[in-house]
Amino acid sequence: MVDPDAASAFSALTGALDPPMFIVTVHVRGERDGCLVGFATQASIDPPRFLACLSERNRTYRLARDADRMAVHVVPDEALDLAELFGGSTGDEVDKLARCEWAEGPGGLPILAHCPSWFVGVVLDRRPLGDHVGFLLEPEAVSSTPPASALGLARAKRIDPGHEA
After folding, report:
1. CB 26 within 8 Å of CB 96
2. How many domains, in total, are found in the chain?
């Protein structure tokens, strides 16, 4: 059990950070979806690995459980509307991909038109990490057009989530 004082102090510490936001998209058995992800990071240099954590409560996670790949998009700072769509609505109620521009990418994955920096990763492992599940990805295809700046958590915090974390 976590000490409530430590949990509060940890929340204050992490709340002051401004990590980049990502949108993860999946395609499984003809179904597509995506969600805004704030818990994600490079996990290894050699071999290259990335860890994307998805909430167990959203539809994207339910699809991703069976996905062999996922696309990870860096959200440009000027794409707050896209972050609001993927973070402020749930795929259980809204077809998010019907409300934005995208093209089919590797493995049939949706690649978002307004996120020029993205990669497709092969899912190597899935690990429960509290209320999120970590997906360890090996990059397979990459489009690198770095945005002037990525949307950070500080701006994304104002998005009302489409479901509880």
Report:
1. no
2. 1
